[in-house]
Amino acid sequence: MKKLLLIFWLVIFCVTLFADNDIFWALDLPSDDGKALILNWNVAADSIHLQKADSLGMWVTIFSGQNQPASFTDSNLNPDTAYQYRLQYTHPQTGDSLSYTLQAQPKEQWFNLHKLSLLLFILVVSLAILYYIMAVKRGKDFYIRRISGLDSMDEAVGRATEKGKPILYVPGISDLDDMQTIASLTILSHLAHRVAEYDSQLIVPCKLSMVMSAAKEIVKEAYLKAGKPDSYKDDSVFYLTDDQFGYVAGIDGIMVREQPAANFFIGSFYAESLILAETGYSTGAIQTAGTAQAHQLPFFVVSCDYTLIGEELFAASAYLSRDPLQLGSLKGHDFGKLLVITTIILGVIAEIIGWHWFKAFFEGV
Amino acid sequence: MTGFMSTLGLWMAVFFTFSIFSFLYKDNPLYKLSEQIFVGLSAAYWLVYTFFSMMMPNLIVKLSSDFKGNIILLIPATLGFMMLLRIFPKTQWFSRFPIAIMIGTSAGINMVRYTKSDLLSQVSATMINPFAAATTSAIIGNFLLIIGTICGVYFFYFSKKQEGMSAVPSKLGIWFLMISFGASFGYTVMARVSLLIGRLEFLLKDWLHIIK
């Protein structure tokens, strides 16, 4: 009897499972934050109506139209909340109006597997960075090629000292949440150290208060490291205005009146890049610019003596300091670049031979 | 009164436009005056804007209307207050904490964001079958895209001396970069010319009524 009962329940379970699932079923959207369900159906009809029960239990149509594709993604749902759906259609042969209901609830996933390539890439590059940092610390010497834009720093400071004129440093117009500004501030640290050594004068106008505060700290620390804390002038780093073109107008005025011997435009720049670089050029200053803004680089290339293009800006800190930590990091980045080149070549080959999954993996599809 | 104010505004705009344009000749008192007014006005404007558009709705109003519900806002408020302590030399060191938090969080957030948008998206966009295009020029274009991207990335490879064979992709890379800079330069100059046209239109249309 027990066996019979067990078989009966198994039959019921299988019928429910397969019968219902074959016609109208719901799947949780994989790798999401539990806010969507995929509703699927398999019916012989020209058009269907898909409804969802609202909070009062009333059916609200969420999709009405062609049978194909036999799938609909209901998004903007709440995780772990049960939702009821109803599929309605008219049988093409009998003309009967049929309806199926189901209940489903979306679930949050711990991992978004669409971003697996991102995780792997970051992990591999991070491990490479750690490996190279340890290798540099063990005393291994790595080669770094010349970056002429950074070699100009000494020339600029020397020239400013000879002429008795200041050096203007513009850290860009973005806030500290921009990596270019952070890279710019590390370069400022090295420049300020050199300026302190040569007893030259530095002018750092800032657009944003946070950048000004960070720049002040950095310049002050550089003077301390150089053993000349008394030479540090608090007003050498100052705030101008938050307005983009107000800031540019102010810097133009400084360039024309103070006549700096060297101008550094390093950081994130937008429409103001040419105005700054052209004015600096007209004053005869030696100019070094650096940005990762692809649209502004052309202006700096044509109007500055040296330009740090994109990645060179981020490599500057390691290049200038030769600090093991930063040098290892730079080597790790270089490993990342080789990885990118290899991945692209493999991806192109995979596309040619029809292995589209390789590209899809990196697209996160 | 409204008519007088708008006329005054129009003449002031004309005056400041010419004052700024006068810098094209050389630095002069009119430019200095405009520059100082512009810098001062904009600084004051952004201070007021930041207070009333950011601090008021996002901090003060929320805390005063529902303190318990928005108690987490005390963290950014405290960090902001620590920044203000820069005013006094003895308490300046407090500001290092909010600066460190901002730089640290920015680096962490941006690492993931840019790896996705600036790296993996670009890498996958370059993974194309160059022969899949319909025309010969499109096939050549596909090859240029792949070679240009690879050589462009290789140009920024700092760990190897660029001599002999290894200098070839690097040199190709800088050529690709410079050509793209040239195209970008021309495109942006066109946009700047449209800005100049906008200003000239203001002078000739709104002020002098020469054009309609």
Explain what this protein looks like in three dimensions.
Chain A is an alpha/beta fold and 365 residues long. Chain A is 48% helix and 21% strand. Chain A has three domains: 83 residues, Immunoglobulin-like; 53 residues, no CATH class; 181 residues, Rossmann fold. Chain B has a domain of 85 residues. Chain B is built from six helices and no strands. At the A-B interface, helix 2, helix 5, helix 6, helix 8 and helix 9 of A face helix 2, helix 4, helix 5 and helix 6 of B.
Concise overview:
The complex is a heterodimer of chains A (365) and B (212). Chain A is an alpha/beta fold and 365 residues long.
Terminal-residue CA separation of chain A: 51 Å
So what's the overall shape of chain A? elongated
Q: How much strand of chain B?
A: under 5%
User: Which second-level CATH architecture of the largest domain in chain A applies?
Assistant: 3-Layer(aba) Sandwich
Distance between the termini of chain B: 26 Å
Name the shape of chain B in a single word: extended
- Strand line-up of the largest beta sheet of chain A: 10-9-8-11-12-13
Quaternary organization: heterodimer
Order of helices and strands of chain B: HHHHHH
List the helices and strands and how they pair.
The complex is a heterodimer of chains A (365) and B (212).
Chain A: H1 2-23, E1 24-28, E2 37-41, E3 47-53, E4 59-66, E5 71-74, E6 83-90, E7 97-104, H2 116-137, H3 148-163, E8 167-172, H4 179-198, E9 202-206, H5 209-225, E10 237-239, H6 244-258, E11 262-268, H7 273-282, E12 286-291, H8 297-303, E13 306-309, H9 311-321, H10 324-352, H11 356-363
Helix pairs in contact in A: 2-10, 3-4, 4-5, 4-9, 6-7, 7-8, 9-10
Chain B: H1 2-21, H2 29-65, H3 74-84, H4 96-126, H5 136-155, H6 167-207
